[in-house]
Amino acid sequence: MDNRFSQESLRQMVSQWLPPHQVPQRFRIHSDTTDFFTVEYDDIVILKDRIYLIRHNAKEARFGLNDEVKFWVKRAVDLTDGRLKIMKLVFYEKFMSRIGNIEFECFRSPKKEARILDLVSGHKNFMHGYSVPDEKGNLIRVLDFIRGKTLATHISMIDMDHETYYHERFPEILDRFVECVEAIRFLHDHHERHGDIRRDHILIDQDTGDYRWIDFDFNYRHRENIYGYDLFGLGNILVFLAGKGDVLLQDLRKARNPRLDSLSEADFNIVFHNRVVNLKKIYPYLSESLNRVLLHFSSGANRFYDHTSQLLQDLSRARITH
Amino acid sequence: MADTEKSFNKNILIAVDESDNARRAVSYVGRMLAGVPGFKVAILHVVPEPEDDYFPSAKEKEEWLSKHVQKIEALLEEYRQLLIEKGFDPKDVSVRSTLRYCPSMAECILAERDATHYSTIVVGRQGLSRSEEFLFGSISSKIVNHARDCTVWVVE
């Protein structure tokens, strides 16, 4: 327990940044965050010499489910400058993850995320922040709050038909996404992996328009190809962007899409067998070179990408011929 | 007339892990070569240096490693006995475990092969689906594709 700050001094600090009616009368003060469930709204967390006022727990949307509360991730106000931060407390979690029919062991690693935060400091395509141990040595990550939507939300809100989207919006989106792939290559070149590449782990910074990767604390026990899972994630996002959303077998059936009959097993995602990857069969105006890149992630693929540099090379051709 | 046959030795390196595929590979070598003179077998296990990220503390990593090494030593001895039971002379069967930083297990196994100049590597086929191979890669496929100056047996 940290006794350096009196209740009155804390109230004064908080009142600099919050309207009077929101300033609590008493604060619970934490300098040990081991039990993150006890760190609650309006509590104070002191990390070294910096003081933070805790706000809400973070939530994460899951496909088809209500938002999941992440009790170890808090919004917080840095009382030194009033800036909004995301504070990730230490949660060691090991579990079996399932992708399609494949199970593999995953875990959260604060050390990994802290290391990557140092590595990507100043890189425009990543979230920024720093790590600091609490008094028990728990490695807390304090992240700059990024205002903006996830890439998934952004795409879902584009209200136009696919062909118009493909010609008018997709080229810029692809350019931005290629920057994200280059950012992942940067990680791989430094022997790091993102670990949880998903379309809702890219935020579009509303101030700069940059696409920025978030959440690198996820890791997995790799087998032979250390970067395979990251590449799979990149492929899924690319197909999602090119298709203006997932093109699902059940949706095509429901819409009685006339091109449904032309699809074979080889045209679907190598892991998610209901997602169409060979999008040219659905959208014939898609460029051949782009579709060839997509097909690397299909069940019919003869060759897989081993490294981001191969994907980037093919994407650069796709951009030229778009 | 040009000599089209490369020279090779009768030393066999069996790369094993804790899987059934590895056991099958050892058993196969036993059945194929036991009693045939001149062959020497080394049973190899590469312990991939576990990532620090996986463990909350250095102490837990050390504990895990120590237990794992004990388990592997017992396994290697079991495989050695299996070959002897099949008919290999005990002096012709050796075991080796080594701790290495291993972003790629296949490359680590090949590096061990290159250091020993064994002419044949034997591995078990993992039996991965296409999607598993896509996501995580296949050790045996990579060994087959990258091995030089040696023969590779992939045991089904």
Which labels suit this protein?
heterodimer; A: 322 residues; alpha+beta; Transferase(Phosphotransferase), domain 1; 2 domains; 7-stranded mixed sheet; 3-stranded antiparallel sheet; 9 helices; 12 strands; elongated; B: 156 residues; alpha/beta; 5-stranded parallel sheet; 5 strands; 45% helix; globular
Strand order of the largest sheet of chain A: 1-2-3-4-5-9-8
Rg over C-alpha atoms of chain B, rounded to the nearest angstrom: 17 Å
Tell me the number of strands of chain A: 12
- Run of helices and strands of chain B: EHEHEHEHHE
Q: Please give the CATH architecture of the largest domain in chain A.
A: Orthogonal Bundle
Query: For the report, how would you describe the main beta sheet of chain B?
Result: 5 strands, parallel
- How big is the Rg of chain A? 22 Å
Strand content of chain A: 15-25%
Helical residues, percent of chain B: 40-55%
Q: How many H/I helical runs of chain B?
A: 5
Which fold name is given in CATH as the topology of the largest domain in chain A? Transferase(Phosphotransferase), domain 1
- How would you write the strand order of the largest sheet of chain B? 3-2-1-4-5
Distance between the termini of chain A: 60 Å
Low-confidence stretches of chain A: none
Mean pLDDT of chain A: 93
- The number of strands of chain B is 5
| Large-scale geometry of chain B | globular
Describe the structure in your own words:
The complex is a heterodimer of chains A (322) and B (156). Chain A has two domains: 98 residues, no CATH class; 171 residues, Orthogonal Bundle (Transferase(Phosphotransferase), domain 1). Chain A is elongated. In chain A, the strands form three sheets. In chain A, strands 1-2-3-4-5-9-8 form a seven-stranded mixed sheet, covered by helices on one side. In chain A, strands 6-7-12 form a three-stranded antiparallel sheet. In chain A, strands 10-11 form a two-stranded antiparallel sheet. Chain A is an alpha+beta fold and 322 residues long. In chain A, helix 5 packs antiparallel against helix 6, helix 5 runs antiparallel to helix 9 and helix 8 runs antiparallel to helix 9. In chain A, 30% of the residues lie in helices and 22% in strands. The N and C termini of chain A lie far apart (60 Å). With 156 residues, chain B is α/β, with parallel strands linked by helices. Among the domains of chain B are: 62 residues, no CATH class; 39 residues, no CATH class. Chain B is built from five helices and five strands; from the N terminus they run E-H-E-H-E-H-E-H-H-E. Chain B has a five-stranded parallel sheet, with helices on both faces. In chain B, strand 1, helix 1 and strand 2 form a beta-alpha-beta unit. The longest helix of chain B is centred in the middle third of the chain and has 29 residues. Chain B is globular, with a radius of gyration of 17 Å. At the A-B interface, strand 7 and helix 6 of A face helix 4 of B.
